[in-house]
Every structure is written in structure tokens, then in C-alpha cells.
Design goal:
The chain is α+β, with helices and mostly antiparallel strands. The protein folds into two domains: about 5-135, Fructose-1,6-Bisphosphatase, Chain A, domain 1; about 150-250, D-Maltodextrin-Binding Protein, domain 2, CATH 3.40.190. The chain is built from eight helices and 14 strands. Helix 4 links the parallel strand 10 and strand 11. Helix 1 (about 5-25) runs antiparallel to helix 2 and helix 5 (about 180-190) packs parallel to helix 6 (about 205-215). It is globular. GO terms for molecular function: inositol monophosphate 1-phosphatase activity; metal ion binding.
Length: about 250
């Protein structure tokens, strides 16, 4: 693990402790909405402020783009989703995470995701392979014949497209899971808990860390769209899953 990778893991783990305190006292949080089923709490803002300050201190004033407080995209910057899966977080569901990536010339080269309630950190540097809790790891492909794909769901991706993707997968013998959290869906694919993940109408902070981690775990990792909010799509998975989704890829890519 490179020094920058290790520093990023340490930073996100500290942010995770802070977020877990908020989670345990979430009934006291101020809450607002950004749109239908799109929530933001004071915890989101507090974690982003913490990460923003820590990145500037640890990485010599490096710029950061965040979901809640913004920032400027450049050739060299960090990007954070302070609490991905806010609805899950607010309902007491443990499936949420903190996602941080370093972007160099439009591509992630360091990615870290922390799941505070689950007590797991997944991370990678480009070319490094998968790391779990700071140690080199391999994707678990035990029971790989139990075929399970995660399909995202959000109020911007048309319901008929989601239904088409899910129906297609089920007809081909795939089980379908929905976690309503991109960082969980990506990390679970990298860990081997699913075969992959498909979703569209995402933002760069949702997927930057996870697509790198999935690639370093040995999965095919495809993503694209515009970095503007909610303009991106992602398809990561085993070769079998990607092959089985080729003919319905337009329903994911838009």
C-alpha cells in the first residue's frame, strides 16, 4: 500500500467514526430534502467538512469536490460522498458508506470506501489490487455459481428501464438485489458478495472510488456519462454478468 493510499484509508476510517456517532444519535439530526427521496442531513455536511479539512491538511491543500459543499473539477483533485445511502442511514439501515477518491486527469487512481456500521474498509490504488481493512485481499468467489446481481434504483432512472433490466436478468437465471446505495453495491461486488452492479443517473462522487476498487478486485468495470450531478452510469461485474447485460445496456447507459 502506497503512503498516499494509507493516508486516505486512515482519513476515511476517522470520518467513519464520526459518522457512526451521528448514526447512533440520528434522531437528533436536522434534515432537509434536495428532491424526491433525496435527503441531506447535518451528518452529511459535518462529515464532508471534516474530510475537506483533513484532505487539505494531509495532502498539502489539495482541492476537494463534495456532494454537499461542491468544489471545482480539475486535473488533480479529491472527491467525496460523505454519506452515501442517506435514506438507509436515516432509517437505521446499516447499508451506507463514506466514499473518497483521488482523480487524476479524469480517472480515479485512489479509492476508499468505509462502511462504519459493518466495520469494513475496501480500497485500492490503480495497479495495486484490492485491499480490505488495510491489507491486500482477493475477491471471494466461493459459491460463484449462486448468481446475484445488484441493480440500483433512484427516482431519476425511469422505472420502466429498471424493470426491463431486472426482468432480463431474472429470465437469465440471475437473482437481483437492491441496496439503494452505490458504495454498498460497488463494494459488495468487489468483495464477492454479488457478481456486479448496474445503475444510471449517478454522480461522480457516487462511483469514483468504487469503480476503481471493483477493477482492482478483478471485475470488468465500465462507466461513463457526464460528471455533472446525476449524469453518469455504471456497469461492473464478472464476465458472465457483463455478457448477459450486453443486449440491455442501452437501458443502463441511456
Amino acid at each position: 500500500m502506497s503512503p498516499r493510499h494509507a493516508l486516505a484509508v486512515s482519513l476515511v476510517d476517522e470520518a467513519g467514526k464520526r459518522a457512526l456517532d451521528h448514526f447512533r444519535q440520528r434522531d437528533m439530526l436536522a434534515l432537509s430534502t434536495k428532491g424526491p427521496l433525496d435527503f441531506v442531513s447535518e451528518a452529511d455536511k459535518d462529515i464532508e467538512r471534516f474530510v475537506r479539512s483533513a484532505v487539505a491538511e494531509i495532502f498539502n491543500g489539495a482541492p476537494l469536490v463534495g456532494e454537499e459543499l461542491g468544489g471545482e473539477i480539475s486535473d488533480d483533485y479529491w472527491i467525496v460522498d460523505p454519506i452515501d445511502g442517506t435514506a438507509n442511514f436515516l432509517r437505521g439501515n446499516p447499508l451506507w458508506g463514506i466514499s473518497l477518491a483521488h482523480m487524476a486527469n479524469g480517472m480515479p487512481d485512489i479509492g476508499v470506501i468505509r462502511y462504519p456500521v459493518l466495520g469494513i474498509t475496501v480500497s485500492a490504488t490503480a495497479g495495486s489490487g484490492l485491499f480490505v481493512d488495510g491489507k491486500a485481499a482477493r475477491r471471494d468467489d466461493t459459491f460463484g455459481d449462486v448468481r446475484l446481481a445488484a441493480v440500483g434504483e433512484n427516482n431519476r432512472w425511469p422505472a420502466e428501464d429498471i424493470s426491463h433490466v431486472e426482468t432480463h436478468l431474472r429470465r437469465l437465471g440471475w437473482g437481483v438485489a437492491q441496496y439503494r446505495c452505490a458504495s454498498i453495491s460497488l463494494g459488495f461486488a468487489a468483495l464477492g458478495r454479488t457478481d456486479g452492479y448496474l445503475e444510471r443517473n449517478l454522480s461522480l462522487w457516487d462511483l469514483a472510488a468504487g469503480v476503481l476498487i471493483c477493477r482492482e478486485a478483478g471485475l470488468q468495470s465500465h462507466w461513463g456519462g457526464t460528471p455533472a450531478a446525476q449524469g453518469m452510469w455504471v456497469m461492473v461485474g464478472t464476465q458472465a454478468l457483463i455478457e448477459d447485460t450486453t443486449e440491455i445496456s442501452t437501458h443502463v447507459k441511456g
